[in-house]
Amino acid sequence: RQAKRRTAGVLCFVPEHDRSQVADLSLLGAMRDGIARGELRLYLQPKLPLLPTRAVAAEALLRWQHPTEGLIAPARFIPFAEQTGFISELTTWVIDAAAQASAQWAQQGFVCPVAVNVSTRDLLDPTFADRVAACLARHRVDASQISLEITESALMEDPERALATLHQLAALGLDLAIDDYGTGYSSLTYLKQLPVQTLKIDQTFIGQMASDSRDAAIVQSSLDLAHQLGLRVVAEGVEDAATLQRLRAWGCDWAQGYHIAKPMPWEQFAPWWAWQHQPS
Ligand code: C2E
Ligand code: MG
Ligand code: MG
Ligand code: MG
């Protein structure tokens, strides 16, 4: 317990301090001279947020505002786009839109990295990383402002080629995340060698976490594994306060879900951010 306190860097009040107080009084007299002699040292201890109480990033989720069909969800066109190869045009559009938003926000003085979902085809395209780089340059957006979410299945088709693209993207300075973790087949050995910083636990495990002890076990052990590998963990699909509370207690780093906010049109995002970040 003592050791834990020390590593946490917390100054504790212990009885020894009490007993030496008299001796400290004489030391105090010498302190005036100590200041004059330049004997004081400034120490700093880093502080970091542990709780995701305020948004720090966003995920880009594509919708199609069809003139007669209305707003169409990605489940209705992404699989089709992937089959036909049209997906690379969609991905290009999304990355471009995200970079454009980022550039505009930078002018308004706020910083919010945007994550874009990429598919298998993108990762197997040897020109993909170059196209991403060109897009960032065109909008004068730093690579730290765009991150990419990759599903496990996207890595399985041709792991070597996908890995080569991931390394190119990582070299550009993009943050990479494994999306829908737990639903694919990636082995732990494989996970170990990926140049990713983040693991997103799939919402199917998060949704029932509070009621199903098996889901809870999967989430907890994924958190443990990811943290041991030095990865940040994002829980997706957080729909209620109880789940968020539990994830916090388990040390989950970030959360996403309807309980916090539903995906919103990008023009609404800056006002939402301002509202959420106002001093309480
Ligand atoms: P994903 O990347 O795993 O995104 C999370 C999905 O869960 C999104 O659905 C999001 O709206 C939804 N979601 C977020 N919070 C909650 C919650 O609390 N409860 C529930 N039930 N759902 C929640 P969406 O927007 O319909 O997207 C579905 C999938 O389509 C995405 O899953 C992603 O794989 C794909 N997708 C979306 N946009 C793009 C894109 O631009 N490119 C590609 N390649 N795929 C995309
Ligand atoms: Mg995603
Ligand atoms: Mg996901
Ligand atoms: Mg998903």
From TrEMBL:
Residues 24-277 form the EAL domain. GO terms for biological process: signal transduction. GO terms for cellular component: membrane. One of its GO terms (molecular function) is cyclic-guanylate-specific phosphodiesterase activity. This is Predicted signal transduction protein containing a membrane domain, an EAL and a GGDEF domain. It comes from Serpentinimonas raichei. The chain holds residues 517 to 796 of 796 of the full protein.
